[in-house]
Amino acid sequence: MIIGVTDTMVSEDKFNYYIKWLEGSGMPVSWVKLSYKLDNLNAISACNGLLLTGGNDVDPSLYGIQANHPKIKDVDIERDNFERKLIDKVLTNKIPTLAICRGMQLVNVHLGGTLLPDIEDAGYKSHRTVGKVETRHPVGIVRGSLMSDVTGTDSGNVNSSHHQAVDKPGHELKVTARAEDGIIEGMEFQSGNDLFLLLLQWHPERMPEHTNEKDNPLSTAILKKFLTNISENSTTLKDK
Predict the structure, then answer these.
(1) Predicted TM-score (pTM) above 0.85
(2) Active-site residues: which are they?
(3) CA 201 to CA 213: how far, in whole Å?
(4) For position 212, what pLDDT does the model report?
(5) 11 Rama sector, left if φ>0, alpha if ψ -120 to 50, beta otherwise
(6) Which residues pair with 179 in a beta bridge?
(7) Half-sphere exposure of 1 (CA within 13 A, CB side)
(8) Mean pLDDT of all residues in 216-226
(9) CA distances from 83 to 35, 72, 106, 227, 235 (A)
(10) For the chain, which terminus, N or C, has the lower number of CB atoms within 10 Å?
(11) What pLDDT is stored for residue 7 in this prediction?
């Protein structure tokens, strides 16, 4: 199977966490980096799944916030536009998708949702990671959701490295995981849409590396289910 992985545009090290995570699954998987700088939007046509990675802030104009908001930094409009085209392609053709951190936020905005421009400004405690030791916090998962089925649990601990979060969910999306303070940590499609789409605010690709939690279901089980779903329903846009 071939997974399209969006470039984080931040550092090669952060991109490589996703690759190590995929390759450490024990399943036969290859990948292709997708980026507007590579001008390879059409490469998604040969992919069986899409992994939308983290990175810098989403363009605030996409969800009705002033462009010069003081807490919004390093917006890359070209990346937003490129990845929104990817999202359209996988939604139209029902290509399994896993969206992490910024990826979750971009999917939500693309489907008409909004973001909290800054969590602390909105009155929540910080969800940032400062230094080499990642911030951790518990999450609660809605029973009966895809997230619950995938992870086999209704709670757990995740890492945290973000200053923005989903505010209003986008069209057809439902909230399936929250932090203790109420911040949305996971979403998926409402019932009736059979596309495998998991949106995560945490970074499962870094949890095995940074915490030595090789069997944490909020990382390993999610990856296994994503790849298994692709393997069992393997298709590409070229097959459509």
Answers:
(1) yes
(2) 101, 203, 205
(3) 18
(4) 56
(5) beta
(6) 139
(7) 26
(8) 91
(9) 8, 19, 8, 21, 20
(10) C
(11) 97
